[in-house]
Amino acid sequence: MRTAAVIGTGLIGTSAALALTRRGISVHLEDTDQDAARTAASLGAGTTEPADGPVDLAVIAVPPALVGKVLADCQRRGLARCYTDVASVKAGPRGEIAALGLDTVHYIGSHPMAGRERSGPLAATADLFEGRPWVLTPTADTDTETLNAALELVALCGAMPIVMDAADHDRAVALVSHAPQLLSSLVAARLEHAEETAVRLSGQGVRDVTRIAASNPAMWIDILSANAGVVADVLDDLAVDLAETVAALRALQAADEGTRREGAAGIEAVMRRGNTGQARIPGKHGAPPTRYETVTVVLGDQPGELGRLFGEVGALGVNIEDVTIEHSTGQQVGHVQLAVAPVAARGLAAGLRERGWGVRA
User: Does the model's pTM come out above 0.90?
Assistant: First the structure.
């Protein structure tokens, strides 16, 4: 691949363009919002000048409902030799593309499983897709050249290709992305009119659950509109579980000891199911999940403190597998939770204490 076009310079489109330009690909940017395109260009994502001839690959980075229309326009103009879209829903756009009678030999659907709660070109980063799954949904018509172009795009962006059927993809993302977004928003919505004293008690648990609730509603309406039925099915199943959990909690308040035991058993059952489900989420580099030990370090809110901590962990010969920062409300300190291999945890805690850090393992 030497040349590419990116149509749509939001978070995903601009991030893909940045990744491609970093690899030496000439990228031509298009967007109905000229300011967004110019902003992406100013960040080094490419040029807003049109290509002299057909580019090797056009990446259509628009909402699902617009994919068919934009692909039709691109093919009419002969913009590229091969085409892909990066919309987060695949079956709907595929159906529209077929209904429009577009060329499906040189088109392949795709979806990088990456994003942020922020949107727009200013939120884009060249490494957004590094190590992330990137789903490809070829049809029986998709030719080898187009598949190879999409695989090269994935490789240039540092992602991992996964080939799936479009409908299977939509069911999967409803479960692991779309429904969690709504659940996060529902939990965060409970905080809207909560007492200030309650909100100030917010710890890492509620921060983790509500992080993605900061996402752009307009963007999510576009996504959910294209996958509404499947997401509703997931939420229907969750509603059954929620009703059973509410009943179990009510039972814990009962005067009868037998009823209380049934309530406790119900809560334990749902939490154990949660343990089992959470353990299935892939771990580092997509490998089976690994259980790490957590070493918590008290960190002052001064420039360079986090870098100094990481440097001393490295000097102790310990690899940080994951890190979480929990901020203390109203205080100029935070707690950095370092996930490390179990065999390294005790030595790391002792080594950091010797260097003057406040540590609890």
Answer: no
